[in-house]
Amino acid sequence: MSWIGFVIFLVATIAYIWNGKDSFTKKEWVVFFVKYLMLLIGTVLVVVMVSGILKVWPFITVSTAKHATSTLAVSFTTILACKFAVVMIVTIFERIMTFHKKYNTEKNYNFLISLVTKHGSGFLLFSKVIVSLGSLPILYGIWFGRTV
Predict the structure, then answer these.
(1) Helices (H), 23-105
(2) Is 98 exposed, middle or buried (0-12, 13-18, 19+ CB in 10 A)?
């Protein structure tokens, strides 16, 4: 069962990272943080519902229920955190380039922008690969390294 959950969340994380949207507008930032808040509220609601159901029908142990709910909540948080990492890397890079455009000489800025146009897509690809590979041990640890 753990392997199925691990693979499902790994595929979901990689799909969400590589979905093509790497720079957020202010509205998209608000939507992203609303997703995170809904995740937290949903986790609390699921824990309350599971604890209520277990009082009526004790079909699994409390420790199994704790393990399942915490594993799912942390796995969903990992999906959002990995996307957040990619978007933040892109945002930081864009802010650095905006700073150079505003405060650097035209000659220096033109040199930097030529580097960005030449190697910018490689930088984005590299950052997505690193975050995708980083999600592998994170999710592995969530699904197989827990002893709740």
Answers:
(1) 26-56, 62-103
(2) exposed
Cβ pair 144, 2 in contact under 8 A: yes
How high is the mean pLDDT in each 10-residue block of the chain (148 residues)? 91 92 89 95 93 90 88 94 94 88 83 83 90 95 79
The residues, ordered by sequence, that sit 6+ positions from 127 with a Cβ below 8 Å of its Cβ are 86, 89, 90
Q: Which of 111, 85, 89, 91 is nearest to 100 (CA)?
A: 111
Buried b (16+ CB within 10 A) or exposed e, 108-132: eeeeeeeebeeeeeeeeeebbeebb
| Spatial distance between the Cα atoms of 89 and 92, rounded to a whole number of angstroms | 5
Residues 6+ apart with CB under 8 A from 108: 100
Output the six-digit token pair for 73.
Answer: 């909540």
